[in-house]
Amino acid sequence: MAIHMIESMINSPRPMRTEATHVANAVLDGTHSVMLSGETAVGAYPEITVQTMAEISVAAEDSINYMQLLKTKMEAAPMPMSPLESLASSVVQMTNCIKAVMILVLMKGGSTAKLVARYTPSIPILSVVIPEITTLFECSCSNAAPARHGLVY
């Protein structure tokens, strides 16, 4: 992802049209994140810049047809699928059908969440790393083991 996506906002409260298009196209092309640098570090309008980039990104995401995107990715997937791959794609398809608001992935490592993300769900994925998965799930908070994954929204 290129930096200085809306560089004109260092000195102006509005981005140039080409910069807004650049941000939207990055989202439509499937980027997983966009970044601001000088626009917020030394810019005159850091808060407006963040709000503007967020608004452009959300508007672009709202225009994506996630069902069609999933269908395209399913057609391109190697067949036969592994059981884990099949589960990941089915989770994304199911969440689209039931209008879920989040996918919760419990795992020992990071590969399961990456596999689900490959099918581009329209909702956030919250991954929880459990070092040892047992039949009993207990939740506790301490600073002994900091979170390995986070959700920023």
From TrEMBL:
Gene3D superfamilies: Phosphoenolpyruvate-binding domains, Pyruvate kinase, C-terminal domain
Keywords annotated in UniProt: ATP-binding, Glycolysis, Kinase, Magnesium, Metal-binding, Nucleotide-binding, Pyruvate, Transferase
Superkingdom assignment: Eukaryota
Reaction catalysis annotation: pyruvate + ATP = phosphoenolpyruvate + ADP + H(+)
GO molecular function terms listed in the Swiss-Prot or TrEMBL record: ATP binding; kinase activity; magnesium ion binding; potassium ion binding; pyruvate kinase activity
SUPFAM superfamilies recorded: Phosphoenolpyruvate/pyruvate domain (SSF51621), PK C-terminal domain-like (SSF52935)
The enzyme's E.C. designation: 2.7.1.40
Pathway note: Carbohydrate degradation; glycolysis; pyruvate from D-glyceraldehyde 3-phosphate: step 5/5
Cited InterPro entries: Pyr_Knase, Pyrv/PenolPyrv_kinase-like_dom, Pyrv_kinase-like_dom_sf, Pyrv_Knase_brl, Pyrv_Knase_C, Pyrv_Knase_C_sf
Pfam families on file: PK (PF00224), PK_C (PF02887)
The protein's required cofactors: K(+)
Domain (Pyruvate kinase barrel): residue spans on this chain: 2-50
Residue span, Pyruvate kinase C-terminal domain: 85-132
Family, per entry: Belongs to the pyruvate kinase family.
Name of the protein in its database record: Pyruvate kinase
